[in-house]
């Protein structure tokens, strides 16, 4: 796996410099699969059942040629209808003290024979819209790359605060200094060890959204570049103080939708590697 943090959903797209070497990938996905309920912290920090969806993507080691040739499902591909059923069943059986990501991925992978035959990577993203105060959702994702055909997996977890919409005094023009304007922030945190389904770990991470929103709305920088570095320094300080959640990479993306009249937004994005003591 690359040691740079990338959003799992864009790992194999044409913007990836390694796209040419991955052009033979076959991918099976289920998007926006609704779960009955997931126990997670809400915006007040109370751990309660709440709505959630799963996005899951399975990268196949080899093309699904036999299934395509015979026009019939076989073990060269993944039956996405059965996959969805297994995921919903696995999520409903997870105890309230853990997230269902591990169970969901294990249900998606299936037997060791399936892993050894054709599954290269599984990426599962749990989306929790009611866990975000300022944004569209908070999501937790896990990627497992099966580095060989024995079923041994390299595991990586990410946490994302998506679409935080904040009112901020920022800009170099005189009119921008007269009042706050909307800024949209995405925060992606890569963890150097899997969360392991731990709600205790996530109880440390979830409050970061409110902390960042409160701190950002106090600022008055002229440039997004200065704002981005300031926010990174604040976030790094909080992450260093967390005993359970060990972060190693942070990505921040800032949008100013009102900055340019005939553009959707001006964007500044940074990615920083952490070496926490």
UniProtKB/TrEMBL annotation:
<feature type="compositionally biased region" description="Basic and acidic residues">
    <location>
        <begin position="9"/>
        <end position="20"/>
    </location>
</feature>
<comment type="pathway">
    <text>Cofactor biosynthesis; tetrahydrofolate biosynthesis; 2-amino-4-hydroxy-6-hydroxymethyl-7,8-dihydropteridine diphosphate from 7,8-dihydroneopterin triphosphate: step 3/4.</text>
</comment>
<keyword id="KW-0456">Lyase</keyword>
<keyword id="KW-0289">Folate biosynthesis</keyword>
<comment type="similarity">
    <text>Belongs to the DHNA family.</text>
</comment>
<dbReference type="GO" id="GO:0046656">
    <property type="term" value="P:folic acid biosynthetic process"/>
</dbReference>
<feature type="region of interest" description="Disordered">
    <location>
        <begin position="1"/>
        <end position="20"/>
    </location>
</feature>
<dbReference type="InterPro" id="IPR043133">
    <property type="entry name" value="GTP-CH-I_C/QueF"/>
</dbReference>
<feature type="domain" description="Dihydroneopterin aldolase/epimerase">
    <location>
        <begin position="159"/>
        <end position="272"/>
    </location>
</feature>
<dbReference type="Pfam" id="PF02152">
    <property type="entry name" value="FolB"/>
</dbReference>
<dbReference type="InterPro" id="IPR006157">
    <property type="entry name" value="FolB_dom"/>
</dbReference>
<dbReference type="GO" id="GO:0004150">
    <property type="term" value="F:dihydroneopterin aldolase activity"/>
</dbReference>
<dbReference type="InterPro" id="IPR006156">
    <property type="entry name" value="Dihydroneopterin_aldolase"/>
</dbReference>
<dbReference type="GO" id="GO:0005737">
    <property type="term" value="C:cytoplasm"/>
</dbReference>
<protein>
    <recommendedName>
        <fullName>dihydroneopterin aldolase</fullName>
        <ecNumber>4.1.2.25</ecNumber>
    </recommendedName>
</protein>
């Amino acid at each position: 796996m690359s040691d740079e943090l990338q959003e799992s959903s864009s790992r194999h797209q044409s913007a990836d410099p390694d796209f040419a070497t991955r052009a033979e990938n076959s991918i099976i996905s289920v998007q926006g699969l609704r779960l009955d309920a997931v126990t997670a912290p809400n915006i007040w920090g109370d751990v309660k059942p709440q709505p959630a969806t799963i996005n899951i993507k399975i990268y196949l080691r080899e093309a699904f040629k036999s299934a395509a040739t015979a026009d019939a499902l076989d073990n060269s591909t993944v039956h996405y209808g059965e996959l969805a059923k297994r995921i919903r069943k696995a999520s409903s059986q997870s105890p309230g003290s853990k997230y269902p990501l591990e169970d969901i991925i294990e249900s998606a992978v299936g037997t060791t024979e399936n892993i050894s035959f054709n599954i290269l990577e599984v990426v599962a993203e749990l989306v929790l819209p009611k866990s975000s105060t300022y944004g569209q959702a908070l999501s937790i994702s896990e990627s497992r790359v099966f580095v060989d055909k024995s079923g041994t997996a390299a595991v990586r977890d990410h946490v994302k605060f998506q679409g935080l919409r904040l009112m901020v005094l920022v800009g170099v023009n005189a009119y921008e200094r007269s009042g706050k304007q909307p800024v949209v922030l995405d925060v992606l945190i890569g963890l150097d060890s899997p969360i392991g389904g731990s709600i205790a770990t996530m109880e440390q991470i979830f409050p970061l959204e409110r902390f960042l929103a409160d701190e950002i709305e106090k600022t008055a920088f002229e440039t997004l570049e200065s704002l981005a570095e300031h926010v990174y320094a604040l976030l790094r300080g909080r992450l260093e103080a967390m005993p359970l959640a060990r972060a190693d990479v942070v990505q921040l993306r800032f949008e100013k939708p009102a900055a340019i009249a005939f553009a959707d937004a001006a964007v500044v994005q940074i990615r920083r590697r952490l070496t926490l003591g």
